[in-house]
Amino acid sequence: MIRRDRPGAINVTVSVAAFALLLASAPAAFGEEISGIITARDGPDMVVTDSAGAQTTITLTDATRAISRGGTFGLARDELAVTDLINGLPVTVEVARNGEAVVATEVKFRGSDLKTARQVQAGTAQAHSKAREKAAELEAKNAELRKRMAEANEYVVKGHAAVYFATGSA
Asked: Which residues of 129-141 are buried (b: 16+ CB within 10 A; e: fewer)?
């Protein structure tokens, strides 16, 4: 509404409209939520895969809050460390986008889901350890095979001997 009796009113109305337009067209999106399961962690980055299979790499910062919900109605809340965000944990992540970068501001999950993810992680720890050992063993064998293949064309002289034949004989 434009009122001519107050000279500053037009500027305020235009400013509010300009601010709303700026927020709508800004590259950074605030308050967006991504829901899915954590499928990978690498330092400050985690990959969240949604139910359609789309993967989003999200960066965790020192300002990121990890909030566990629990209780009968989900009203109990505990703030945990971002190190508790492990593979297999279903999460809802509030993110801020700035161009291509996706930064987590808050990660919410249920305490019971964290307990289940920890149990699965503990149950598969031995299998992962054996797989790492087998991979290291195979890498050592592969390195040895590459070394042998590189030396395949090299001849090693073991000794010298002179062989004499009579003239005209074989």
From this structure: eeeeeeeeeeeee
Q: Average model confidence (pLDDT) for the chain?
A: 79
CB neighbours of residue 58 within 10 Å: 22
pTM for the full predicted model: 0.56
- The number of helix segments (H) and strand segments (E) in the chain equals 2, 7
How far apart are alpha carbons 62 and 112 in whole angstroms?
Answer: 25
What's residue 164's pLDDT? 84
User: Residue 113, class by beta-carbon neighbours within 10 Å (0-12 exposed, 13-18 middle, 19+ buried)?
Assistant: middle
Q: d(Cα 96, Cα 106) in Å, to the nearest integer?
A: 10
Backbone angles phi, psi at 53, to 5 degrees: 95, 0
Residues of the chain with pLDDT under 50: 1-3, 9, 11-29
